[in-house]
Amino acid sequence: MVEPKAGSAVRPAVCAGSWYPADADALRSALEAYLAGVEPMVNRVRAVVSPHAGLMYSGAIAARAYGAVSRQRYDVVVLVGPSHFHRFEGVAVWGHGSFDTPLGALTIDTGLAADLRAAAPLVRESPRVHEREHSLELQLPFLARLFPDVPILPLLVGHQQAATVAALGNALAQVLHGREPLLVASSDLSHYQDRDTAARLDAVVVGHVERNDPDGLQASLTADPSHACGGGPMVAVMRAARRLGGTHARVLGYGDSGDVTGDTSHVVGYLSAAFGEFGDGAHARPA
User: Is the pTM above the cut of 0.90?
Assistant: First the structure.
Protein backbone atom coordinates (compact mmCIF):
# COMPACT_ATOMS: atom_id res chain seq x y z
CA MET A 1 0.00 0.00 0.00
CA VAL A 2 1.35 3.42 -0.95
CA GLU A 3 1.25 5.73 2.05
CA PRO A 4 0.74 9.49 1.63
CA LYS A 5 3.86 11.61 1.96
CA ALA A 6 4.35 13.70 5.06
CA GLY A 7 2.70 17.09 4.72
CA SER A 8 0.55 16.13 1.75
CA ALA A 9 -3.17 16.84 1.58
CA VAL A 10 -5.29 13.84 2.51
CA ARG A 11 -8.96 13.84 1.57
CA PRO A 12 -10.69 11.82 4.33
CA ALA A 13 -13.15 8.99 3.69
CA VAL A 14 -16.23 11.02 4.60
CA CYS A 15 -18.72 8.32 3.53
CA ALA A 16 -17.11 5.52 5.53
CA GLY A 17 -19.42 4.29 8.25
CA SER A 18 -22.58 5.35 6.43
CA TRP A 19 -22.37 4.54 2.71
CA TYR A 20 -20.01 1.60 3.31
CA PRO A 21 -18.28 0.00 6.33
CA ALA A 22 -15.62 2.04 8.09
CA ASP A 23 -14.04 -1.06 9.60
CA ALA A 24 -11.36 -2.43 7.27
CA ASP A 25 -12.16 -6.10 7.92
CA ALA A 26 -15.90 -5.59 7.45
CA LEU A 27 -15.32 -3.62 4.25
CA ARG A 28 -12.92 -6.20 2.89
CA SER A 29 -15.42 -8.98 3.59
CA ALA A 30 -18.23 -7.07 1.86
CA LEU A 31 -16.07 -6.42 -1.20
CA GLU A 32 -14.99 -10.04 -1.42
CA ALA A 33 -18.61 -11.18 -1.27
CA TYR A 34 -19.57 -8.85 -4.13
CA LEU A 35 -16.53 -9.80 -6.24
CA ALA A 36 -16.92 -13.54 -5.72
CA GLY A 37 -17.83 -15.29 -8.94
CA VAL A 38 -17.31 -12.25 -11.19
CA GLU A 39 -15.44 -13.43 -14.26
CA PRO A 40 -12.39 -11.32 -15.22
CA MET A 41 -11.92 -10.17 -18.81
CA VAL A 42 -8.78 -11.19 -20.67
CA ASN A 43 -9.05 -8.58 -23.44
CA ARG A 44 -7.83 -5.10 -22.64
CA VAL A 45 -10.38 -2.92 -20.83
CA ARG A 46 -9.82 0.81 -21.16
CA ALA A 47 -12.82 2.12 -19.24
CA VAL A 48 -15.76 1.11 -17.07
CA VAL A 49 -19.05 2.58 -15.92
CA SER A 50 -19.87 1.98 -12.26
CA PRO A 51 -22.72 3.21 -10.00
CA HIS A 52 -22.21 5.22 -6.81
CA ALA A 53 -25.05 4.44 -4.41
CA GLY A 54 -24.37 3.00 -0.97
CA LEU A 55 -22.40 -0.25 -1.17
CA MET A 56 -25.34 -2.36 0.01
CA TYR A 57 -27.51 -1.00 -2.82
CA SER A 58 -25.22 -0.88 -5.85
CA GLY A 59 -22.19 -2.88 -4.74
CA ALA A 60 -23.22 -6.01 -6.64
CA ILE A 61 -23.53 -4.05 -9.90
CA ALA A 62 -20.30 -2.11 -9.34
CA ALA A 63 -18.44 -5.33 -8.59
CA ARG A 64 -19.18 -6.62 -12.08
CA ALA A 65 -17.16 -3.75 -13.51
CA TYR A 66 -14.27 -4.03 -11.07
CA GLY A 67 -14.22 -7.81 -11.15
CA ALA A 68 -13.97 -7.65 -14.94
CA VAL A 69 -10.71 -5.68 -14.71
CA SER A 70 -9.32 -7.38 -11.61
CA ARG A 71 -6.54 -9.22 -13.48
CA GLN A 72 -5.43 -6.28 -15.61
CA ARG A 73 -2.55 -3.89 -15.03
CA TYR A 74 -2.87 -0.12 -15.06
CA ASP A 75 -0.55 2.75 -14.27
CA VAL A 76 -3.31 5.22 -13.30
CA VAL A 77 -7.05 5.20 -12.61
CA VAL A 78 -8.90 8.30 -13.80
CA LEU A 79 -12.19 8.84 -11.95
CA VAL A 80 -14.84 11.07 -13.52
CA GLY A 81 -18.07 11.74 -11.66
CA PRO A 82 -20.82 14.32 -11.19
CA SER A 83 -20.84 16.97 -8.50
CA HIS A 84 -23.91 16.62 -6.29
CA PHE A 85 -23.25 19.51 -3.89
CA HIS A 86 -21.60 22.28 -5.89
CA ARG A 87 -22.70 23.99 -9.12
CA PHE A 88 -19.86 25.31 -11.25
CA GLU A 89 -18.53 25.57 -14.78
CA GLY A 90 -15.88 23.16 -15.99
CA VAL A 91 -14.19 20.30 -14.13
CA ALA A 92 -12.75 20.20 -10.61
CA VAL A 93 -9.61 18.17 -9.96
CA TRP A 94 -8.01 17.22 -6.66
CA GLY A 95 -4.45 17.22 -7.92
CA HIS A 96 -2.22 16.47 -4.95
CA GLY A 97 -1.86 14.29 -1.84
CA SER A 98 -4.14 11.30 -1.49
CA PHE A 99 -7.69 10.06 -0.91
CA ASP A 100 -8.07 7.98 2.22
CA THR A 101 -10.06 4.73 2.54
CA PRO A 102 -10.47 2.24 5.40
CA LEU A 103 -8.13 -0.04 3.39
CA GLY A 104 -5.41 2.61 3.03
CA ALA A 105 -4.76 5.79 1.10
CA LEU A 106 -4.72 6.06 -2.70
CA THR A 107 -2.20 8.59 -3.95
CA ILE A 108 -2.91 11.27 -6.56
CA ASP A 109 -1.01 11.29 -9.85
CA THR A 110 0.16 14.89 -9.50
CA GLY A 111 2.01 14.89 -12.82
CA LEU A 112 -1.05 13.79 -14.74
CA ALA A 113 -3.16 16.38 -12.94
CA ALA A 114 -0.77 19.11 -14.07
CA ASP A 115 -0.72 17.77 -17.63
CA LEU A 116 -4.52 17.75 -17.77
CA ARG A 117 -4.81 21.30 -16.43
CA ALA A 118 -2.34 22.44 -19.08
CA ALA A 119 -4.21 20.61 -21.85
CA ALA A 120 -7.68 21.76 -20.77
CA PRO A 121 -8.09 25.13 -19.02
CA LEU A 122 -11.63 24.08 -18.03
CA VAL A 123 -9.99 21.70 -15.51
CA ARG A 124 -9.20 23.60 -12.33
CA GLU A 125 -7.80 22.64 -8.94
CA SER A 126 -10.73 22.77 -6.48
CA PRO A 127 -10.44 20.61 -3.36
CA ARG A 128 -13.55 22.26 -1.87
CA VAL A 129 -15.75 20.64 -4.51
CA HIS A 130 -14.43 17.19 -3.56
CA GLU A 131 -14.75 17.47 0.21
CA ARG A 132 -18.32 16.09 0.59
CA GLU A 133 -18.75 14.35 -2.76
CA HIS A 134 -19.65 10.65 -2.76
CA SER A 135 -19.68 9.87 -6.49
CA LEU A 136 -15.94 9.18 -6.62
CA GLU A 137 -15.48 7.98 -3.04
CA LEU A 138 -17.83 5.04 -3.64
CA GLN A 139 -15.38 3.73 -6.26
CA LEU A 140 -12.40 3.83 -3.93
CA PRO A 141 -13.04 0.72 -1.80
CA PHE A 142 -12.92 -1.47 -4.91
CA LEU A 143 -9.77 0.29 -6.12
CA ALA A 144 -8.08 0.05 -2.73
CA ARG A 145 -8.85 -3.68 -2.68
CA LEU A 146 -7.78 -4.47 -6.26
CA PHE A 147 -5.26 -1.76 -7.21
CA PRO A 148 -3.81 -0.38 -3.95
CA ASP A 149 -0.56 0.81 -5.53
CA VAL A 150 -2.04 2.46 -8.62
CA PRO A 151 -2.35 6.27 -8.39
CA ILE A 152 -5.66 7.98 -9.11
CA LEU A 153 -6.84 11.21 -10.71
CA PRO A 154 -10.20 12.41 -9.29
CA LEU A 155 -12.32 14.67 -11.54
CA LEU A 156 -15.77 16.11 -10.86
CA VAL A 157 -17.87 17.64 -13.63
CA GLY A 158 -20.01 20.67 -12.75
CA HIS A 159 -22.62 21.83 -15.23
CA GLN A 160 -22.62 18.96 -17.67
CA GLN A 161 -22.77 20.92 -20.91
CA ALA A 162 -21.99 19.04 -24.11
CA ALA A 163 -19.03 21.30 -24.87
CA THR A 164 -17.48 20.72 -21.43
CA VAL A 165 -17.91 16.97 -21.69
CA ALA A 166 -16.46 16.82 -25.21
CA ALA A 167 -13.46 18.94 -24.25
CA LEU A 168 -12.76 16.77 -21.20
CA GLY A 169 -12.94 13.56 -23.24
CA ASN A 170 -10.56 14.94 -25.85
CA ALA A 171 -8.12 16.24 -23.25
CA LEU A 172 -8.08 12.92 -21.37
CA ALA A 173 -7.31 11.04 -24.58
CA GLN A 174 -4.47 13.48 -25.28
CA VAL A 175 -2.75 13.31 -21.88
CA LEU A 176 -3.25 9.56 -21.47
CA HIS A 177 -1.78 8.62 -24.84
CA GLY A 178 1.06 6.15 -24.31
CA ARG A 179 -0.06 5.24 -20.79
CA GLU A 180 -2.07 2.31 -19.42
CA PRO A 181 -5.06 3.97 -17.76
CA LEU A 182 -8.35 2.71 -16.45
CA LEU A 183 -11.04 5.36 -16.89
CA VAL A 184 -14.00 5.11 -14.51
CA ALA A 185 -17.28 6.91 -15.17
CA SER A 186 -19.30 7.11 -11.97
CA SER A 187 -23.03 7.35 -12.58
CA ASP A 188 -26.39 6.14 -11.39
CA LEU A 189 -29.26 6.08 -13.88
CA SER A 190 -32.85 7.29 -13.42
CA HIS A 191 -33.97 8.34 -9.94
CA TYR A 192 -37.15 7.63 -7.97
CA GLN A 193 -39.36 6.32 -10.74
CA ASP A 194 -41.43 3.16 -10.49
CA ARG A 195 -39.54 0.15 -11.81
CA ASP A 196 -41.29 -0.04 -15.18
CA THR A 197 -40.73 3.65 -15.90
CA ALA A 198 -37.12 3.43 -14.73
CA ALA A 199 -36.47 0.46 -16.98
CA ARG A 200 -37.77 2.37 -20.01
CA LEU A 201 -35.66 5.43 -19.21
CA ASP A 202 -32.59 3.39 -18.39
CA ALA A 203 -32.88 1.34 -21.58
CA VAL A 204 -32.04 4.49 -23.56
CA VAL A 205 -28.70 4.85 -21.76
CA VAL A 206 -27.99 1.12 -21.86
CA GLY A 207 -28.60 1.07 -25.60
CA HIS A 208 -26.15 3.89 -26.30
CA VAL A 209 -23.57 2.23 -24.05
CA GLU A 210 -23.99 -1.14 -25.78
CA ARG A 211 -23.41 0.54 -29.14
CA ASN A 212 -20.45 2.54 -27.75
CA ASP A 213 -22.21 5.65 -29.03
CA PRO A 214 -21.20 8.71 -26.96
CA ASP A 215 -22.74 11.11 -29.48
CA GLY A 216 -26.10 9.37 -29.25
CA LEU A 217 -25.89 9.31 -25.46
CA GLN A 218 -25.08 13.02 -25.39
CA ALA A 219 -28.07 13.78 -27.62
CA SER A 220 -30.37 11.81 -25.31
CA LEU A 221 -28.99 13.56 -22.24
CA THR A 222 -29.37 16.97 -23.85
CA ALA A 223 -33.03 16.16 -24.52
CA ASP A 224 -33.59 14.72 -21.02
CA PRO A 225 -30.78 14.97 -18.42
CA SER A 226 -32.78 12.85 -15.95
CA HIS A 227 -31.62 9.67 -17.69
CA ALA A 228 -28.45 9.65 -15.55
CA CYS A 229 -26.92 11.82 -12.85
CA GLY A 230 -23.44 11.17 -14.26
CA GLY A 231 -24.35 11.19 -17.93
CA GLY A 232 -21.70 13.79 -18.76
CA PRO A 233 -18.92 11.78 -17.10
CA MET A 234 -20.08 8.71 -19.05
CA VAL A 235 -19.89 10.57 -22.35
CA ALA A 236 -16.44 12.02 -21.55
CA VAL A 237 -15.07 8.62 -20.57
CA MET A 238 -16.58 6.91 -23.61
CA ARG A 239 -15.05 9.55 -25.91
CA ALA A 240 -11.60 9.20 -24.33
CA ALA A 241 -11.76 5.42 -24.25
CA ARG A 242 -12.59 5.17 -27.95
CA ARG A 243 -9.52 7.24 -28.85
CA LEU A 244 -7.39 5.06 -26.56
CA GLY A 245 -8.47 1.78 -28.16
CA GLY A 246 -11.77 1.08 -26.41
CA THR A 247 -13.58 0.35 -29.66
CA HIS A 248 -16.11 -2.13 -28.26
CA ALA A 249 -18.53 -2.01 -25.34
CA ARG A 250 -20.11 -4.60 -23.12
CA VAL A 251 -22.87 -4.12 -20.56
CA LEU A 252 -21.91 -6.16 -17.51
CA GLY A 253 -24.82 -5.57 -15.18
CA TYR A 254 -28.06 -3.67 -14.72
CA GLY A 255 -30.40 -3.45 -11.76
CA ASP A 256 -32.15 -1.05 -9.45
CA SER A 257 -32.45 -0.32 -5.75
CA GLY A 258 -35.63 -2.39 -5.55
CA ASP A 259 -33.51 -5.51 -6.00
CA VAL A 260 -32.22 -4.85 -2.48
CA THR A 261 -35.04 -2.99 -0.74
CA GLY A 262 -37.99 -4.80 -2.31
CA ASP A 263 -39.64 -1.41 -2.95
CA THR A 264 -40.20 -1.08 -6.70
CA SER A 265 -42.34 2.07 -6.49
CA HIS A 266 -39.37 4.50 -6.27
CA VAL A 267 -36.12 3.02 -7.58
CA VAL A 268 -32.69 4.20 -8.66
CA GLY A 269 -31.16 2.48 -11.68
CA TYR A 270 -27.62 1.06 -11.69
CA LEU A 271 -25.39 0.10 -14.63
CA SER A 272 -21.95 -1.40 -15.04
CA ALA A 273 -20.21 -1.64 -18.38
CA ALA A 274 -16.76 -2.02 -19.92
CA PHE A 275 -15.10 -0.51 -22.99
CA GLY A 276 -12.10 -2.12 -24.59
CA GLU A 277 -10.63 -4.32 -27.28
CA PHE A 278 -13.09 -7.19 -27.14
CA GLY A 279 -13.74 -10.21 -29.26
CA ASP A 280 -14.75 -13.78 -28.69
CA GLY A 281 -13.39 -15.13 -25.42
CA ALA A 282 -13.24 -11.72 -23.79
CA HIS A 283 -13.70 -13.29 -20.37
CA ALA A 284 -11.16 -15.48 -18.65
CA ARG A 285 -12.02 -19.03 -17.72
CA PRO A 286 -13.21 -19.27 -14.12
CA ALA A 287 -10.32 -19.93 -11.75
Answer: yes
Q: Which has the closest alpha carbon to 185: 34, 47, 43?
A: 47
Q: Is residue 73 within 8 Å of residue 150, measured between CB atoms?
A: no
In sequence order, the 6+-apart residues with CB closer than 8 A to the CB of 171 are: 116, 119, 120, 123
Distance CA 154, CA 203 (A): 28
Question: Tens digits of per-residue pLDDT, 2-59?
Answer: 333 434 599 999 999 999 999 999 999 999 999 998 999 989 999 999 999 999 999 9
What is the per-residue pLDDT across 158-175, written as a single tens digit (0 to 9) for each?
888 999 999 999 999 999
Q: Is there a contact between 91 and 137 (Cβ–Cβ < 8 Å)?
A: no
What are residue 123's DSSP bridge partners? 91
Whether 11 contacts 94, CB under 8 Å: yes
